[in-house]
Structures are given as structure tokens and as C-alpha cells.
Amino acid sequence: MRLSLRQLQIFLAVCDLGSTTAAANAIALSQSAVSAGLNELEGLLDIQLFDRVGKRLIINDNGRLLLPQARQILDTAATIEQQFEKPDASTAIGLNIGTSTTIGIYLLPKILASFSPQRALATPRILIANTAEVASAVASFAVDIGLIEGPCHEPDLHVERWITDELIVVCAPSHPLAAGKPHRKVPLKALRETGWLLREAGSGTREAVEHALVPHLHYLHSAAEFSNSEAIKHAAAVGLGVACLPRLVVADLLNGGQLVELNTALPVLRRHFYLVHRKHKILSARLSGFMQFCRDWKIERGVMAPV
């Protein structure tokens, strides 16, 4: 077998960076060695993996076919090294985590801050994207595991229910729905007629909000769509509309009085977060330990803490 791990490493570096020069800098090889390794791989497979456009190398359909297999092979090789390296080795391989936006901003830093001092870890690599993008990254072996906040539709993933999050309806104190008696329940009719601030399609928060609200309101009149929850809460605080967001996201503006929680006729709104990894993926001791550490956390009134 003439196919080598070095050739696959070069291939992935060129995929990620778009040129042999940038790839050479990233993996500590000379530019000529990277070019030679890529040419050897293409010669061995008798195909071209990239389209040459000037100095840029653009992955083609052959390259895209090889990409997930190459990632899986290198991931397995890294796991083998990781299993047999010394715990205090300076070359320890860090975790590669994909996380949807709310978890990545509000929860994961707290988990890592508690976990990392207890482990000999290299700096973890974190991908923050919406749920659909994270699930796709896990399925293609671009990341080791995913922490997501919505249902997963990737058939090749193992999905484990993780923790429960509370969704609440908020708006600015000046919003018409916040007027009147503070304990008066806002009727469903008023919620149907108001404008909602929503996440983009593909977001786990968007899917969770629609799953929670549409059975009771039948539809949501969109006042605006945003690509992250932080923008939504600030838009709600200046009166652009009503939002349904995780309590942990809006806790700061609720405490500061820029937002108010509406008392509605809706039932208690909850959603689940999930841990996902590729089916049949070899879970190293370090990765298994981190996942168990995540399982031992809970959310209570917008604050995440170990059980």
C-alpha cells in the first residue's frame, strides 16, 4: 500500500487553506515537499483532486469524495497516538469541538474552564455555527463531537439527549404587550398578532421556538430574522419585537431591566440540548472523559453548574 498518512495530511491542509504555500506553513513542510506529496497522491489515485485557478487550488468533485474518508483515517490515526502518549506529553492533541451558537457562547466556556485545569490538554479547537452546520461538521469528521441545541437530521450520527433548557418570551418594557398589570397573562390572540424576532433557518433555537410556539399560535409573524441570539435580545430590548429565547441568553438584560419576561397563556416552554458524534467513531479516553464531564452539568434558572 503506497498511500501514506502524510499524503492525506497534505491533502487536508491544501483543502483547508487553498494553496501549497499556506499548507506548507501550517504543517511545517517546505512548499516543494507539499507539492510533491500532493502530486504523488494524485498520481497514485490517477485523478486530479483540485482545479488549478492561478495560484489557488480549488477542491473538485474527486477531492470532495476523498475528503471525509481522509478526515476519518487521520482522526483514527490521531486517536491511536493519543491513546498511547504519556498524559503529560507536550504534543497532546486537543479536543476538536463543534457547538451551536447558544451553547458555544454561554455554556461551553464555563465547561472548558472547569474541565481544562483537571486535564493535560492542548488548547481545544472550537467551531461555533448553527445546529445544521455543526451536525454536518461532525458527520464529515471535521470535528470530534457536537454540542447542539436542536434536533439532528444527520443519519450517520449518534445522538444523545443532554440537558434541558428553558425558553421564555421577552420584550422591551415599552412594548405594548408589557403594558398593564404585571401579572396579567398575555392572551394567545395577542401573541399571534405581534411581530416576532427569529433566528435564521437551520438554527437549533429557531427550530425549538417553532416547535414550542406554533402548536399554540399556529404561525409566527416574523418582524426580523437574525443569525444569532445576541442580536435578537438587543433588538427586543430596543422595541423591535417580541422574542422567545433561552433564559440563560437574556438573564443579563432581564436583571438590568432592559427586557421583561412576559407572563403568557403558553405552557412552560422547554427544549433539549444534545451530544452528537459520528457512529462507529473511536472515542479516545480523553474524548470520553470530556463527554462524561458534560453529562454531569445542568442548567438551573439560567445558570449552568455541575450536578
What is the topological layout?
Elements: H1 5-17, H2 20-27, H3 31-45, E1 50-53, E2 56-59, H4 61-84, E3 96-100, H5 101-115, E4 125-129, H6 131-139, E5 145-148, E6 157-171, H7 188-193, E7 196-199, H8 204-217, E8 222-226, H9 229-237, E9 242-246, H10 247-256, E10 260-261, E11 269-278, H11 285-295, E12 297-300, E13 303-306
Parallel strand pairs: 3-4, 3-5, 7-8, 7-9
Antiparallel strand pairs: 1-2, 5-11, 6-9, 6-10, 6-11, 12-13
Q: Residue share in helices?
A: 40-55%
Radius of gyration: 23 Å
Instruction: Please report the number of helical segments.
Output: 11
Query: Percent of residues in beta strands?
Result: 15-25%
Question: Which residue ranges are poorly predicted, with pLDDT under 50 across at least 5 consecutive positions?
Answer: 87-93, 301-307
Assigned CATH architecture of the largest domain: 3-Layer(aba) Sandwich
- Estimate the mean pLDDT confidence: 84
* CATH hierarchy class name of the largest domain: Alpha Beta
Number of domains: 3
Structure report:
The longest helix is centred in the first third of the chain and has 24 residues, at 61-84. The protein is built from 11 helices and 13 strands. 44% of the residues lie in helices and 23% in strands. Strands 3, 4, 5, 6, 7, 8, 9, 10 and 11 form a 9-stranded mixed sheet that branches. The chain has a two-stranded antiparallel ribbon with strand order 1-2. A two-stranded antiparallel ribbon has the order 12-13.
